[in-house]
Design a protein that fits this description.
Blueprint: H1 10-22, H2 25-57, H3 62-111, H4 114-164, H5 166-169, H6 176-213, H7 215-220, H8 224-276, H9 282-324, E1 342-350, E2 356-365, E3 370-374, H10 381-388, E4 396-401, E5 404-405, H11 411-417, E6 418-421, E7 430-431, H12 432-437, H13 445-454, E8 466-467, H14 476-490, E9 494-498, H15 506-520, E10 524-528, H16 532-537, E11 540-545, E12 548-553, H17 555-561, H18 564-580
Parallel strand pairs: 3-10, 3-11, 6-9, 9-10
Antiparallel strand pairs: 1-2, 1-4, 4-5, 7-8, 11-12
The protein binds adenosine-5'-triphosphate (ATP).
Residues 351, 353-354, 357, 375, 377-383 line the site of adenosine-5'-triphosphate.
């Protein structure tokens, strides 16, 4: 079952937005001041033009007009330089904020409790990182500075109009009713519309990815038609959500375009009446007509930008929502675990789907012991491993490592104290050095080489070799060696092996087990044993059956008890012997 990661509520989004912007306060102020200065310089052009008209009507000399023209050219040049400087500053801020947002998102993903990341599914996280992060980044990079400067620039132009003729300046109010009705109508619907669109996009991605990943299984079970129908439904839902936001935009933009021309028309009409009454000069009307267009241009762009702001805010809400799961983590203990003992008390666990899987497990593993966990398929062995590693918190009861409740350990502490090794190892598209340094950032080259030598990775002589992706493809055994080298570097007190060598061919498995012996030296080891000879070599064996520890003791003790383990051993031994002959 996949869960959907939360979407942050408005207050949290606003806080995030202002805290990101606040980090660049000085640059933001500089950029905005430069923009206002640029707008101030651009108002000079229409004002000087108005003056020229009036002076010409009054019979001014060519020299006077030339001086005004020279002033006009200087003002335009100043406006150009200031606009460039302001744009440069704001772009710089935008890029920095975009980078911060990405870092913040990655940090949050890495802090997600593992069970939440697993249940969230790849579609949701992928859409958030590939669609929402760039969208929210563009909100911070382009839109937010643009909105601020657009408002201020418009105010400067309106101020210049008021200075020329207060009555004509009032004509900008003509655009107010239609703009405000349109904006209110749009804003009421846009946030939920864009969030629904993103959600539908995530679901569509998830559904299509699941269908393509499981295409062969679907074919085998004749589920192709069902998968296609599910895919069609997801695409239709996405199309429906996209059409709705498109409808919102088209109505809104149409309203804006018509509002935009109203003030200029108003200036010309009212200006004509006032001019013939002798209340204003021709130059003032001309200047105000140009200024009204200049005032409305950024305002019009600003209102168009509201659409992008809405999309950006919806995306920022989804990006911030990832961090919200952090609060789902229980209160963290400040105590550091000491030693490698593991104690489980009355541990019960139920997956979100299905019934209870562990029914009150009690288990104490002293530091340095090797415990093998055996039992039939579906008994709950892997679940037990996940709980000890702190991936899933127990439903009730407690799991303590080194005297500290694992569920209350901060993620960093837990990762240093306990490691779960499964048969799935991820080799990142990065150098060998970077792949190893994940376990211990400060490891020296000598330590990295020692770790590789301990696990028998003779192929790894160049730490800078690129791995993963289209670079060097590693086989399962080499990937396993990297995972084991990471354990040496992380140096945890407790290691849990969940069928760590099950996928390897027998020769590679034997080599890996030899490497494992070196890696596990001195640590507490809890191994889910597939092959019973591993169990035979352990200090003690726990037989898990039906979600309970049915038997616990050494190999000899359990054989002597002649219970479940003895039966497993006899049947495995018989099979092993017959396959050997
Ligand atoms: P195996 O040896 O086959 O790996 P196991 O002893 O490790 O089995 P678990 O994998 O712990 O058993 O599973 C115990 C029970 O929990 C099974 O009934 C399984 O179907 C169920 N289960 C395991 N993982 C999940 C999950 N993610 N969601 C729901 N149920 C699950």
């Amino acid at each position: 079952m996949t869960i959907e990661l939360p979407v942050a509520e408005g207050r949290r989004v606003r806080r995030a937005f202002f805290s990101l912007l606040g980090a660049e306060r000085r640059r933001v102020i500089t950029g905005v001041v430069l923009h206002v200065a640029a707008a101030g310089a651009s108002t000079a052009a229409p004002l000087l033009m108005g003056r020229m008209i009036d002076d010409l009507s009054a019979g001014a000399s060519v020299g006077d007009i030339d001086r005004l023209a020279l002033g006009l050219a200087a003002a335009l040049l100043a406006a150009l330089i200031l606009t460039w400087a302001a744009g440069y500053t704001l772009n710089q801020i935008g890029e920095l904020l975009s980078v911060r947002l990405r870092e913040r998102f990655i940090d949050r993903c890495l802090r997600l409790p593992p069970h939440v990341a697993e249940q969230a599914g790849s579609g949701d996280l992928t859409t958030r990182s590939t669609v929402d992060v760039p969208e929210a980044g563009s909100l911070l990079r382009d839109t937010a500075p643009w909105v601020t400067t657009a408002i201020l620039t418009s105010l400067v132009y309106i101020g210049a109009m008021a200075w020329t003729s207060p009555v004509l300046a009032l004509t900008v109010l003509l655009a107010a009713p239609s703009i405000s009705i349109g904006a209110r109508w749009y804003l009421k619907r846009a946030r939920s519309g864009y969030i629904d669109e993103r959600r539908a996009e995530s679901r569509m991605g998830e559904t299509l990815a699941a269908s393509s990943d499981g295409a062969r299984t679907a074919e085998l079970f004749e589920l192709t038609r069902h998968r296609r129908r599910t895919g069609d439904e997801a695409i239709a839902a996405h199309w429906g959500a996209t059409r709705y936001t498109l409808f919102l935009r088209s109505v809104y933009f149409l309203g804006l375009e018509s509002s935009y021309v109203l003030p200029t028309a108003g200036v010309l009409l009212v200006g004509a009446v006032l001019y013939f009454d002798g209340a204003v000069s021709l130059g003032a009307v001309s200047a105000c007509a140009v200024l009204s267009r200049q005032a409305m241009a950024p305002l019009n762009n600003l209102l168009m930008t509201i659409e992008r702001v809405q999309r950006g805010l919806a995306s920022l809400a989804r990006v911030e929502g990832v961090g919200q799961t952090e609060s789902d983590e229980p209160v963290q203990s400040g105590r550091a675990p000491t030693g490698g003992d593991v104690v489980l008390r009355d541990v019960r666990f139920t997956y979100p789907t299905g019934g209870e899987v562990l029914h009150g497990v009690d288990l104490a593993v002293p530091a340095g012991e090797r415990l093998a966990v055996v039992g039939p398929s579906g008994a709950g062995k892997s679940t037990l491993a996940r709980l000890i590693a702190g991936i899933d918190p127990p439903g009730s009861g407690s799991v303590a490592l080194g005297g500290v409740d694992v569920a209350s350990m901060p993620l960093e502490v837990r990762r240093r104290h306990v490691t779960l090794v499964t048969q799935e190892h991820h080799v990142f598209t990065a150098t060998l050095r970077e792949n190893l340094a994940l376990a211990e950032r400060d490891a020296t080259d000598a330590e990295l080489r020692d770790a590789l030598a301990t696990v028998g990775a003779t192929w790894a002589d160049d730490l800078d070799v690129e791995l993963g992706g289209t670079a060097r493809e590693l086989d399962a055994a080499s990937a396993q060696q990297i995972a084991l080298a990471r354990i040496i570097l992380a140096d945890p007190d407790v290691v849990i092996l969940d069928e760590a060598t099950a996928m390897l061919d027998p020769r590679a498995a034997r080599d890996t087990e030899r490497a494992l012996a070196a890696v596990l030296e001195g640590r507490t080891v809890i191994g889910i044993a597939h092959r019973l000879h591993t169990a035979h070599d352990a200090d003690r064996i726990a037989v898990v059956d039906g979600g309970e520890v049915a038997e616990l003791g050494s190999h000899e003790e359990l054989l002597a008890r002649d219970g479940a383990y003895a039966r497993l051993w006899q049947s495995w031994h018989g099979t092993a012997e017959s396959s050997a002959t």
